[in-house]
Model the fold of this input.
Amino acid sequence: MPRLVVVSNRVADPRKTAAGGLAVALADVLNNNGGLWFGWSGKIIEAAEDGSYPEPKLHAQQAGPVKLLTLDLNREDHDAYYLGYSNGVLWPVFHYRLDLADFDAGYITGYRRVNQLFARKLAPLLREDDVIWVHDYHLIPLAAELRALGCNQRIGFFLHIPLPPPLILAAIPGHDWLIRALFAYDLVGFQSKADHFHFCNYVQSEAHAQELPEGRWRAFNRTVHAGAFPIGIDVEEFDALARAPEGREMYERMRGEYSRRKLLVGVDRLDYSKGLPQRMRAFRELLTRYPETHNSATLIQIASPSREDVSAYTEILHELESLCGSINGNFGELDWMPVRYMHRTVARARLPGLYRASRVALVTPLRDGMNLVAKEFVASQNPNDPGVLVLSRFAGAAEQLREALLVNPYDIEGTANAIHLALQMPLEERRERHQALMNTIRSFDVHWWCDSFLDSLAKAKAEETGTPWLRL
Ligand code: ADP
Done:
């Protein structure tokens, strides 16, 4: 059995409960055959007095059968690779926000330097028959750097965020270099059919790639397989969390506190892609249009702090605080606060209880690769009396979760009407929709995602080399 090597910007210890579905699923696969997980340690090395940096050391830690290998980054590399290029260029542009991108020329150099550093440190540790799975936008050129060092292993890449259409992508100086780098992989996976379609359009129109059967593209003397692999959640994990004492206690507390009211819930990272101001405006519109919601609907919005050293994030924070304040000021009563906004992270063990106590979830990003909160909400519901999911059509999840109430988050009135519909929805319809959503979420859970990507990767390489198909 080949060994699996996972590479991602951050590495999670799969034994910790806060690790989350993705870490747990990857750990499952890593555990089966033993494996290696490689990435940044999260630590930054500051410059010495003369401005120099020491060579970064590799930290090794054994987590059961999985070896975690992490690397510190020096300040200059971190700022250019992580803050500059990954989060200042790729994140906004891939989320269709050209207006927020900062195309400072130095960032791309730092991005390339860190990918080279990762490749240099990883290459000597690889075995000939390893299978390497690289994750996300921080590491697009990693396979190209590994190939340059002579690595011929199977390498797959999964993009967790959206891929925009060619003309938006083409606004990035060096976009051709980025997409060319994808051809160093054997398999490239996207969250949705729409993202995959954008990739196909790009390679055809900009790279003049030749389309081959079975989802393959040929350009730059290489053949790459590409496809959509929508990520899922660990349904069993959510079920177990909902039944565990902390989940149950959270549910009881919320039901007790809001027994006379219908709860709406929003749980997000505080990010401009999540459409939080638009969501607040839609909720204000709901209160304006439908006075019967006064005193009876309460929105709990939890927004976890994220990338607070980037200015676009502090702006969204202020806008959100001011909107929540004005809604409560204009509509609130002595015994009813319409919005409860919290700028913090909720313990993972308590989330299912919060979701289950809520009648409606507002998952209304302006653009999202997938959005796991939508799936977590559905998985946490009581099937006999389930809540309703209001979901943005611009979340990758909307391709799969057709039985949610799909909305255009830019359309404030339309979203307000959909929220009203969700609050009013009869039990029978709620059950039917929930059942259908649950079937999808169960069939395409995080284990399905891991297995189907790795199966496709095994096949992808076999076709190229003529070796038998390898199943992980
Ligand atoms: P993104 O990866 O862009 O943050 P997703 O919805 O795909 O968006 O994944 C977010 C994950 O983080 C989910 O598992 C969700 O439960 C968790 N999460 C998001 N916001 C919070 C929060 N405020 N408190 C606790 N967990 C959160």
